[in-house]
Amino acid sequence: MTKLWDPINLGNLRLKNRLVMAPMTRSRARENGVVGELTPQYYAQRASMGLIISEGTQPSPEGQGYTGTPGIYTDEQISGWQRVSQAVHDADGKLFIQLMHVGRMSHPDNIPSHKKAVAPSAIAPGEKIFTGNGMKNIPVPQALTITQIEETINDYRRGARAAIEAGADGVEIHGANGYLIHQFLGENSNERDDEYGGSIQNRARFALEVAKAVVEEVGAQKVGFRISPMNMLGGVNEGQNGAALYHHLVSELNKLDFAYLHMMHVGHEAVLADIRQTWKNPLIVNRVGRKVSEVGTDLDAGNADLVSVGTWALANPDLVERLKAHAPLNEADANTLYINNGAVGYTDYPTLS
Ligand SMILES: Cc1cc2nc3c(=O)[nH]c(=O)nc-3n(C[C@H](O)[C@H](O)[C@H](O)COP(=O)(O)O)c2cc1C
Fold this sequence. Notes:
By secondary structure, this protein is α/β, with parallel strands linked by helices. The protein is 31% helix and 16% strand. It has a single domain, classed as Alpha-Beta Barrel (TIM Barrel), CATH 3.20.20. Strand 12, helix 7 (269-278) and strand 13 form a beta-alpha-beta unit. The chain starts with 7 loop residues before the first strand and ends in a 28-residue tail after the last helix.
């Protein structure tokens, strides 16, 4: 862990260390998409990490897929996020808000309009989702028209502007884990025959247009982008040419020269090596399945400039202190990951002292 505690520049920020809190949906927002009352405290408790990336936050009502996720498209939602940014900054932390549009990973029960979800193509993921009425099959979504694609890109743009208005240090575009942008990248989730489907270049087009719009809106220094090559989440499969697809995507993202790329890494080492080579700005790696003792390994090996951790950060508000002291970590309580039970399993994880 030689490098983990070294400061680093990210965009125009100076981060005090290279340990990043990975984005985690916690389903504590109110019905109107305003962050929960305890959310500022939850993030502020974790501000000793170099950077906090917030839970996935919908830039539009259509972008919501799960109950209790926050939005960033109404004035009240922006005020809610202002309280979070303020609390994190008061605790000397840095915050990027993750912009998450779930695409087809949704259910009409869970979204304000109760309309059909939207996606690149009318293909269901073949998965179930938790709704207010129990677990249900995810229905077939509606394929986006070209006009709707343009509107969706504008939603990301507005969401990014709103996040900055709310005092966040930046936004992370969620291009990973089976959600809308990833659905465009997938071969089995995108059967479009227009310029957004088919070839690698076409499947990457939506991701790149979103990134370009957001960079234009808030400035490259305030933008990050998350990918998860070949992890099959949400049933998205990039197909045989997945490595080539990511090579193209990352080469083009690199031209936009924004603050960081964040990769959820599930063991495709050659893909990680290629991305490391292709992406010139800071790379955050979230290596799934590593042990606590291995948290800094990717930094030491030169695979990454920062590393992100999810579950350990959720369960350990003082993760930095614990790792420095080689102290044991609290286990996350699986029952309260997504269930709003006040402070329980949210702001009540104990610190060492
Ligand atoms: C409760 C929970 C919620 C998550 N929500 C999101 C999310 O909103 N956006 C996202 O990109 N990843 C999300 N993830 C994935 C994490 O960011 C991370 O990639 C994953 O947990 C693996 O890292 P870890 O082993 O350090 O936990 C979530 C993970 C957990 C455990």
